[in-house]
Amino acid sequence: MRSIDDLSEEYEFLEPDDRYRLLIELGRELEPMPDALKTDATLVRGCSAAVWVYPTVRDDGRLHFLADSNAAITKGIIALVLLTVQDQAPQKITECDIEGALDPFDLKNQLSSNRTQGIPNMIALIRETAARFTG
C-alpha cells in the first residue's frame, strides 16, 4: 500500500483528468469487502453514493477497515482516507489529523460538492469507531 505522502507528491503534478484516474485506481486497489457486510449498519450516512465501512480488530489491537462504494471516485476517496488510518492503534487514529493529511489533495476544489459531502461523515465514523476501542 502506498503512503499518503508519496501519493500527495504524485497527485500534485497531475492534470485534473489524471487525478480522477489516480483516485479511481486507488479505489480499485481497496481490499474487497464481502457483500454480506454491506448492510444498513455499515452504511455511512450523508454520502451521495452508497458507502460502507466495516472495522475489524487485529490480534494486536490495531484497527483494519474494510470499505466500499458503488461509485468509483467515491471509492478512491475512501481509499485516501483509509491510507491515513489503516492498521493503526485506536489511540493513534483518534489523534490523527485525517483532514490535514487530505488537504494536499484539495478535494473540495477538484471534485463536485456531492462527491465530497460525505467525507466528514466517513472521518467521523472512523474516529468514533477508534474511540470505542481506546482504553
From TrEMBL:
Fe-S metabolism associated domain: residues covered: 13-128
Protein name: SufE family protein
A Pfam family the protein falls into: SufE
Family per similarity comment: Belongs to the SufE family.
InterPro entries to which the protein is assigned, alphabetical: Fe-S_metab-assoc_dom
